[in-house]
Structures are given as C-alpha cells and as structure tokens.
C-alpha cells in the first residue's frame, strides 16, 4: 500500500467510523476516492488529517471540510443510486467526487473559478463521468440541472439559502451545517408539499461558505 492509501484507511477507521458513520456505501467511497488528489501538492501531507483543509491558492480561503463531518453529512443525506445531487461550494471537488460514487448525477458549484477548474480536472483524472463543476456563487446553486433529490453544502450557512431550497424536488433534502444560531449544527431540510421541514442532526462546525454569511450589522 502507498503512504496515501494507508493514510486513507486510517482516516476511515480512526475518524469516520468512530463518528458513527456506518453506511457501507459512504465508507467505500471514502476508501476509494483519493483525498490527496484534491489538495495542492505542497499540502498533500495534510490530506488525511482531522481538520478543515485550506485548499485555496491565493484567493478567498476555501476548504475541504473535515473527513468525519463529510462522512456524517453524506450518511444523513441518504443518497440513492438514481439520485441527482447538487454539491454547493465544492472547493477542489472532494465532496462532489465522493457523491459521484453514490449518485446517478452530480452537479457541483464553486465560487473560485480556478478551484472549479481544478475540480473538473480531478473528476476527469478519476474517471468520474457523472460529475460536473461550474464556477458560480454559492447562493445561486445550479438551476440548469434542477430540481435535485439532494443538495449538500460543503460548509456552513449563516443564512437560509432560499434559492437553493427552491431547487429541491418534492421529497428532496438539503444537508449542511447551519450556523444561524449557536452552537452550529448539521441540519437536514426536507421539501414536502412545497413546505420545508428543518431538523437538527448533531452539533458540528465548518467554515462558512462565501455568499452564505450573515449580513454585517449596520453600525451608526
């Protein structure tokens, strides 16, 4: 085994399984998708550590969220093999690549166009023909491929992303971290008969996605 494949096994066994991720398909995806392929060369040694990994190169800071949280969100999303999924704020595309192992079709967005290009290149290199990535602001989503069975946020939102909720199918669900209140929590929002039901899943922290920050309070 290479050093990276050993590290990948240790990540799954030591960080993901121990966080109550038991879904076999999620675990298999995390064992097969090389996280180091989504990390700048200078930081590849950090690829499997238990941290939100900064993958930005000069622009606004962009992250791959912690492996344990990645696995827990994917498990909560209950992605089926026939599902169409949107991954928002994918950075270099790791979460979207995992999702492509679980779903029929994955559309991903990333606000940094250089990182979106890296994500596309990584999907091609890994043979993930069912995943695409487009440079777009996080709150916009990807209306051209909507509606979606599942939307996954690669980070936290301090405001409710209304435009994204509008891109859910009937019965569809959005998972991500809600930082609207303290402590932040992973949430699932389900669309039923045009109404949205919100359910807190577990306490979780993640970097806030660009464009989903709370508006700064006005000060005289």
TrEMBL record:
<dbReference type="InterPro" id="IPR000682">
    <property type="entry name" value="PCMT"/>
</dbReference>
<dbReference type="InterPro" id="IPR029063">
    <property type="entry name" value="SAM-dependent_MTases_sf"/>
</dbReference>
<comment type="similarity">
    <text>Belongs to the methyltransferase superfamily. L-isoaspartyl/D-aspartyl protein methyltransferase family.</text>
</comment>
<protein>
    <recommendedName>
        <fullName>Protein-L-isoaspartate O-methyltransferase</fullName>
    </recommendedName>
</protein>
<dbReference type="Pfam" id="PF01135">
    <property type="entry name" value="PCMT"/>
</dbReference>
């Amino acid at each position: 085994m290479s050093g990276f494949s050993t590290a990948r096994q240790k990540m799954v066994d030591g960080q993901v399984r121990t966080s109550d991720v038991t879904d076999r398909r999620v675990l298999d995806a995390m064992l097969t998708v090389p996280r180091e392929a989504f990390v700048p060369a200078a930081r590849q040694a950090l690829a499997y550590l238990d941290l939100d990994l900064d993958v930005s190169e000069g622009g606004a800071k962009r992250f791959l969220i912690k492996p344990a949280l990645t696995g827990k969100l994917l498990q909560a999303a209950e992605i089926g093999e026939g599902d169409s999924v949107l991954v928002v704020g994918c950075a270099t595309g790791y979460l979207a690549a995992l999702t492509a192992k679980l779903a029929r079709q994955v559309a991903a967005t990333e606000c940094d166009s250089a990182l979106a290009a890296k994500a596309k290149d990584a999907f091609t290199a890994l043979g993930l023909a069912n995943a695409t990535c487009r440079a777009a602001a996080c709150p916009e989503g990807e209306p051209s491929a909507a509606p979606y069975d599942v939307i996954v946020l690669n980070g936290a939102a301090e405001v409710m992303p209304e435009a994204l909720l509008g891109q859910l199918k009937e019965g569809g669900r959005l998972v991500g971290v809600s930082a609207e209140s303290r402590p932040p929590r992973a949430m699932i929002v389900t669309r039923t008969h045009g109404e949205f039901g919100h359910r807190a899943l577990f306490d979780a922290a993640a970097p806030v996605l660009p464009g989903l920050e709370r508006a700064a309070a006005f000060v005289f």
